[in-house]
Amino acid sequence: GQRQILRSTNAGANWAVRLTHPFGEYGIPIERHPEQPDTVLFGGEDDVLYRSVNGGLNWSPWGAASFRSPCDLVITPGDPAQVIVADGITSVGHAYLHQSTDGGASFSMRDSVAGSEVPSLAVSRQRTKDVFAMTWSAVGARVSHDGGESWELLEDLNRPGQSIAATWGTDIARDDPNVVF
Question: In this predicted structure, what is the pLDDT of residue 47?
Answer without folding.
Answer: 94
